Amino acid sequence: MSFQSLVSAMEERRYKLTGPRLKLLATVMERGHSFTAEELYAELPDVGRATVFRTLKLLLELGSICKLNMDDGTPVYRRGTSAHHHHMVCTSCGRVQDFARCDIDSMLRRLAGATGFKASAHRIEVYGLCRTCQARKVKEEKL
Ligand SMILES: [Zn+2]
Ligand SMILES: [Zn+2]
Ligand SMILES: [Zn+2]
User: Fold this and answer.
1) Distance in Å, CA 85 to ligand 3 centroid
2) pTM of the predicted structure, to 2 decimals
3) CA–CA separation, 69 vs 37, rounded Å?
4) Is the separation of the CB atoms in 91 and 128 below 8 Å?
5) pLDDT tens per residue across span 90-121
6) What pLDDT is attached to residue 93?
């Protein structure tokens, strides 16, 4: 979603785009990697906490960012697509990678058959080491 279409989508939802809010949107759109709400307050001291949370919530609804949890439970946000995908989180450097392949549907169908539970959504986060951190680890072990 481009910045301009995001602005229109926010206006359609009667979200008032004041100067600080526009700055907040621009900051979120610039992020190429994951970020926390705290990082946003720190960067934009003139934007209130409530505004940061409300904006992040709207952006989540619009599908322009996704929310995930680090292995310690810290919530982080990330620019994303509304298409179905999951995340691989590096527990060493915090890098997040998306993956779209998701084979859980047949498992959920079996679960529904066995328990009667009807799943409406699921969340999968995979924790581990990214390629770079694995290579670094191997190097450190050799030293
Ligand atoms: Zn995502
Ligand atoms: Zn890593
Ligand atoms: Zn999935």
Assistant:
1) 6
2) 0.81
3) 12
4) yes
5) 999 999 999 998 888 888 999 999 999 988 88
6) 92
Q: Which two tokens stand for residue 72?
A: 């310690």
DSSP 82: S
CA of 98 to the centre of ligand 2 (A): 14
Nearest one of 122, 128, 126 to 106, comparing CA atoms:
122
- Calculate how far, in angstroms, residue 99's C-alpha sits from the geometric centre of ligand 3: 9
d(CA 3, CA 43): 19
Spatial CA neighbour of 104 closest among 91, 123, 117: 123
pLDDT for residue 129 is more than 90: yes
Quote the ligand 2 centre to 88 CA distance (angstroms): 10
Please write down the long-range contacts of 99-103, taking CB distance under 8 Å and 24 or more positions apart: 99/126
Q: If you measure from the C-alpha of residue 115 to the centroid of ligand 3, how many angstroms do you get, rounded to a whole number?
A: 20
- Max alpha carbon distance in the chain (Å)? 58
